[in-house]
Amino acid sequence: MNNESPVDYRFSFGPWNISEGADPFGPEIREAYPHEKKFVLYKKLGFNGVQFHDDDVVPGIDDLTPAQVEQQTAAVKKILDDEGLLAEFVAPRLWFAPQTVDGGYTSNSATDREYAWKRTQQSIDIARGLNSKGLVLWLAREGTYIREAKNAREAYDRLLETVNRILDYDSEIEVWIEPKPNEPTDQAYVPTIGHAIALSYASKCPDRVKGLIESAHAMLAGLDASDEMAFALAHGKLASVHLNDQNGLKYDQDKNFGSTNLRAAFNQVRVLEENGYGRNGEFIGLDVKAMRTQAGVPVTAHLENSRRIFLHLVEKVRTWDRNRESELRAARDYEALELAVMEHLLGVA
Hints:
Blueprint: E1 11-13, H1 42-45, E2 49-53, H2 54-57, H3 66-83, E3 86-91, H4 110-129, E4 134-138, E5 143-144, H5 152-169, E6 174-178, E7 187-188, H6 193-202, E8 209-214, H7 215-220, H8 225-234, E9 238-243, H9 262-274, E10 284-286, H10 301-318, H11 322-330, H12 334-346
Parallel strand pairs: 1-2, 1-10, 2-3, 4-6, 6-8, 8-9, 9-10
Antiparallel strand pairs: 5-7
Helix pairs in contact: 3-4, 8-9, 9-10, 11-12
């Protein structure tokens, strides 16, 4: 248990969390909300951190010169400064480009691998231009649909080589690996935080290679998100979190935090709270999407609601009777312990 003063949490989300109502099985539900208008909403919603992809900062990045990329980055930095916002991280978007459909860093094509590296370099430059030291690698297409499509050992070597190239390219940037077991690939090469941490220790500078855990991604791997967070915290490698929820082993749903399994959400908050997460400036990142059929423009309730649920659960964690917990653990009375947890969450104890 962390006995220091309570953490005053700060929150972040990405512009993609306020988006048009695209439904893959039906019509557009909501009109697109202009990207440039999203930044003025952050502080009003209680957020002061912005998660970015490289082309969130620099649209059409592949068609621009280095000078134009730098100019656009400076323009976005001014918007952030004017709004009192911070850039939490930048991530190269390597899953939409034609050159990355078979993976960027692990592609069988040397030309495609070089394209992925160029985007990564640009993302590092953008991150530093926004005064951020976080580079997130969501290795979306670094995997296969059939095992014979790539040499898996070679793929892991290429991923480690990429991490080391990033560390060489910028002496201050931190690599935050965001694991996910599947989607869009059938099976990813870095499916869990354990794999990400193994890459960290194998790298030439483990202190600068960490992890970002998304609740739903851990659940898709059949794992408990709070345990995954605890594992990363035990190694001093939890750089950020993307809190959300998931209804079973389906597609990545990005549901409101705590909306499907409140007890699982409680345990995620508990692990973060009791281990001092946020004390060094880490953000509570939310990656939640509005329901596909939700009306309105712009829709922001999913962000406000997830933040409120998190803060309610922080209070539940802080008022939990740990002496009673210790007694029940010592007595190995887990039935009573479970009831105590449920009654605490229901507000009847």
